Amino acid sequence: MENSYTGRVLRQATVLIVLFLIPSSALARQDTVWDFRDGNVPGRWEVRTMAPPTPSPEGLLIHTESAGHMLQISNLEHDIESVSFTYESARALKAKMLFRVRSGGVSGPMLELPFSVQATHSGPTTVHLDVGVYGNWDPRPTEIGFFFPAGTQMLLQEVTLSDFNATEKLWQGFLSFWTYDTFKSYTVNFVWGPRLATTPAQRMQIFARTPPRAGWGNWVFYTLAIMAVATIALQRLRGRIDTRKGATLVAATIAALWLLYDARMGTEFLYYAVHDWRTYWSQELQQRVLRGRGGFHAFAEWAAPRLREEEEYVFLPVVDEFAGFLRYITYPSLPIRPTSGTGGHLWAVFLRPDVAVNQSGSLMQNGQPLSPPGTVIDTWTAESFLFQTFP
Amino acid sequence: MIFVAFLIGTALITAVGWYALRAAEGSVHVLWWWERAAAGFVLGSTLSMFAVFLAAIAGMPLTRWTFCAVLLGSLACIAIPVLLKHRMQPHSTLPTAPSHSLSIIPGSLLFWGILLLALWTAVKVATGAVLLTATPPFQDDVINNWNFRGKVFYYAQEFTLELQRGYGVVESDRVSSYPPSVPLLKTWYASLYGTWHEGLVNAMHILWYLCALLLLFGALCRMVGTGWALIGAYALSSIPLYLIHGSVAYADLFVSIHLFFTLSQLLLALRATGDAERSAHLRLGALALALLTFTKNEGIALYLPILALVAATVFLYMRRKGAAIARPALWTGTVLLIIAGPWLLYKFRYGLPFGNAKAVSGLQFAWQPGVLRAVFINLFFEGNWLLFMPLFVLLLLREWRSAFAWPLLPATGFILLAFLAQMGVFLFTSVSVEALNQTGVARGVIQLLPIMVMLAVLLTRTWWLRHRG
After folding, report:
1. Do B467 and A247 touch (CB under 8 A)?
2. Is residue A261 part of a domain?
3. Same domain, A137 and A46
4. Nearest one of A266, A262, A175 to A221, comparing CA atoms
5. For position A40, which CATH number holds?
6. Which residues in chain A are closer than 8 Å to B142, comparing Cβ atoms?
7. Could you tell me the residue range of the domain that residue A260 belongs to?
């Protein structure tokens, strides 16, 4: 009796799930693609205060000495939840996406979404914009466009404006649940845990922001636990299962959810080591990058033996945070300030494009002399080196 | 050679701890040998470095020979009387296996399940060991406190409060106010090896993690059997932030083991059937309590008053039940005085504060907005504790009759008092920034976690047995 009842419940649940999914999957994901290749220019664009872009077989050439923008009226028949651009660019720059929100059903103010364009050296690259990060994003803007700063040299190939259906969002949620953070400074104090995104762009950038802009994965566990316990309690109240079996089912549910969560967080922990292997341990010293601190730790490993030969040295880091770390690594050799006047002869410079050696052999920062004359004794990169002043 | 240095360094401090525990046990051996080894390593670390601290402030340099002399001298002073007493008066009771041991049939589903989880745990621990020993120092507290002080002691070859932070900055009160046990341990390993090696001085942290799992397993084994003990050990091992703390060079996990050993011995004393066994557990707990004061500042400032209250309540309860508690109480007071006394005197002598790198005396009290929400998110939504926190709260509510009755009352009371005290600091003082930035809340919970897991397992068993009949 009990088994046939359970079977009936399972069959009913399966039917309900399928019925729920059918209408959702019938509304497929909707994309509007503006393909600028082969000389195409989709839509009618209004260009202001910048040189008009030039259509070409490879894409839309945007080459402007002055900042400006290009806009077109939006006649999209779907919401915009994600935007991606495929481009090539001669230099890195900060562009903006423009959209005019609706206000009371009519056009309202123009809002701006900044995004970074990287210099591309080996072919086109695609950037995905998580538009939901902007709290005032309107999924049906009346106008859409771009702002480009002065000096832009860019080839815009394709823009995709996407809307996702429920099934697609569920799939992104599943993928994002298994998207891992890396070991960061805050990891010793907390870990975000699984997060739930609804678009690919959101998923790709989950842990790029603090706090992450994505739903809490714990809601999955709480929802499943509450549903399971409520179902078991209902069956118990109806007398279909006894207390013993109910307790076993509750314990099994909690155990299963715990094991799932352990699998999720345990694999993230293993990923910390995988990430360190890929970016640090498996790389040559000069290519090593550690957990968001770039090449600093590799630089410190390279510079420390020389720095330890001195009692004091001057350290010019790109951020002050690195000074404490280098101080620890080189201790008992200690860093001093450039202006301390205690005669430190060895200078360590890390990622300082503003610091260079002038013609008289002194270190200069933005045209101002920093040190007595000396010489670069070892070079890590053009912006990171060791400098020794003459006795 | 580095491995040899680690082995020798670990063996020596474990031996000190081993015989200290044997001395506390007296004629009744209540610990299994692997429990005594695990507790011996952790408590022996604190005890050894306390002895080194005394020698250092008496003027002895912090060299390899001083360390060796102090450790060997301490070992001789503790071990010889124990061995002589053992020869004259052999130990009587061995810890008996619990009546409800788990029988695991090789090849059964349970066997494969346990094996799989054990392998999974081993993989995670091995990963943690690699992260701990093979990556450069990454966290602020490592380079500013624990490892930094150890390095200062190593190069200065003396115990000093003055920390040269570079740029002309000399600090002598903030992190120097912490007990020096953890930094001295690092100095010990480096002195033994002959050079400062990050992997060597950090390796002990993952060992502490393993000791925490072993000690939790042992305590639960004795209380409720192997099966529940395995559940408890797995639960603790699967909590992400606890594993992370075993994989970084911080000291909160170190504190958690001292706290756990103190509380678990109190609970075992309550369950003991004879005066000799009870007294052994009480003395063991007292030793751990005394050594707790030499771990981190919160050992004295936060936990000692609460544990003193809990212990006093336990003693009064035992006396009401007709147990002989005079001598264990005297032992507790004596050991506390011997260990906490000199450290407290030193702190007062040099005006060292009691706060967490901040003085508590200067704090002003006012409601701090946003803290409750930050704590709630930390406990119930972030991935720090898996599902442990909601389960723990539900268990306390569901099994409140057991949780707030003897023999579990000391553990429940301690957890709630300690948690409320921590929350009080976050909710009403400027230390709230540690909660709002999520930098301080978890540390306090880490320190309480093994006790919480033990309590959760005991309450789960109560629930299970009542519903399963």
Report:
1. yes
2. yes
3. yes
4. A262
5. 2.60.120.430
6. 328
7. 222-281
